[in-house]
UniProtKB/TrEMBL annotation:
Alphabetical UniProt keywords: Kinase, Transferase
Family: Belongs to the carbohydrate kinase PfkB family.
Source organism, top-level taxon: Bacteria
SUPFAM superfamilies xref list: Ribokinase-like
InterPro entries the UniProt entry points to: Carb_kinase_PfkB-like, Carboh/pur_kinase_PfkB_CS, PfkB_dom, Ribo/fructo_kinase, Ribokinase-like
CDD domains with a match to the protein in the record: adenosine_kinase
Location of the Carbohydrate kinase PfkB domain: 48-317
Record organism: Algoriphagus iocasae
UniProt GO molecular function: kinase activity
Entries under Pfam families matching the protein: PfkB (PF00294)
Record has Kinase as a keyword: yes
Gene3D superfamilies reported in the protein's UniProt record: 3.30.1110.10, 3.40.1190.20
Protein name (Swiss-Prot/TrEMBL): Sugar/nucleoside kinase (Ribokinase family)
Length: 331
């Protein structure tokens, strides 16, 4: 009996989310709609012009959001990450604990440095724009991977954003090797189109012969496979993933269960903030398949959850919302 449904590895960032208008981007030289890595000075300059009192602060990072979702639906999850011994680092640890997620962070063993932060700017059209200073999480490496947690998990979940550094790539490959050698299934998310556009070769090294479960959106699937339409892209993905999910935004999702394709219908919603929709889909889906649900049922759960996320501000559900979604799935 495995202790955890899933162990995730990825960046540890404190998400600071706030509403802006398009003029904010013009005034501050921010490119709308993208995730941009910035240095500390640049991020501090933006912090100085936002309304901090109205900003929403949560522990985050792509895989962290997914791992928290697993916990909120009732699963057991573990997160392997890196924060610094500073105010934001302690906030991250406490928020992760409140979310019911076990982790590798120990207050007495934290290193000096700066915890990563992600400024999430949301406009009225519900589009998210992120400026991220990775801080100490950019040094995440093999020594931060908890082998015991992986061995005690049904799935290892790897965040694609780690591919941007050599030490991150090595940690991804090391964790994947541990899982594969011990019968633990491996799930990977591409995380962002830029990760497969600019880091395709190292990402291919991590994918290797195959992964058990791959998460991608339409754009990522086509960039990675080099195809210009989704039908061809999904056939190519069969060569590198035993199972996969292609999210399609307002059009729902497409799941390959190893034999057939399953179309997942979207749930009608009014989008307010798209931040975290893909992370929520992945987390809810992994919860489903590790807790007795079929691929189709897990896709339905994930679709419900992600539609709820985009209808509100922030990348995380409230606990009662997760329970309500489960009740809708299993009336």
């Amino acid at each position: 009996m495995k202790k955890y449904d899933v162990t995730g590895i990825g960046n540890a960032l404190v998400d600071i989310e706030f509403k802006v208008n398009d003029q904010f981007f013009t005034d501050n030289g921010v490119e709308k709609g993208l995730m941009t890595l910035v240095d500390e000075d640049r991020q501090n300059a933006l912090m100085n012009v936002i309304n901090a009192e109205e900003a929403k602060k949560q522990c985050g990072g792509s895989a962290a959001n997914s791992i928290i979702a697993v916990s909120q639906f009732g699963g057991n999850s573990y997160y392997s990450c890196k924060v610094a011994n500073d105010e934001m680092g302690h906030f991250f640890m406490n928020d992760m604990k409140a979310a019911g997620v076990a982790h590798n962070l120990n207050e007495q063993q934290l290193e000096a440095g700066i915890t990563g932060k992600c400024l999430v700017m949301v406009t009225e059209d519900a589009e998210r724009t992120m400026n991220t200073f990775l801080g100490i999480t950019s040094t995440y490496s093999i020594k931060d991977v908890n082998e015991s947690a992986i061995l005690n998990s049904k799935y290892l979940y790897i965040e694609g954003y780690l591919i941007t550094s050599e030490n991150g790539k090595e940690a991804m490959m090391h964790a994947k090797k541990i899982a594969e050698e011990n019968g633990v299934k491996v799930a990977l998310t591409f995380s962002d189109p830029a990760m497969v556009k600019y880091f395709k070769e190292p990402m291919s090294e991590v994918v290797g012969a195959s992964v058990d479960l791959l998460f991608a959106n339409e754009e990522e699937a086509m960039i990675y496979t080099g195809k210009d339409n989704l039908l061809e892209a999904r056939e190519e993905l069969k060569k590198v993933a035993k199972h996969f999910v292609i999210t399609q935004g307002k059009n729902g999702a497409m799941i390959f269960d190893g034999d057939t394709f399953i179309d997942i219908e979207p749930y009608e919603t009014t989008a307010v903030d798209t931040n975290g929709a893909g992370d929520m889909f992945a987390g809810a889906f992994i919860y489903g398949i590790t807790n007795g649900h079929s691929y189709a049922s897990s896709g339905k759960l994930a679709s419900m959850a992600s539609s709820k996320i985009v209808s509100q501000f922030g990348p995380r559900l409230e606990w009662h919302q997760a329970k309500e979604i489960l009740n809708r799935l299993n009336p």
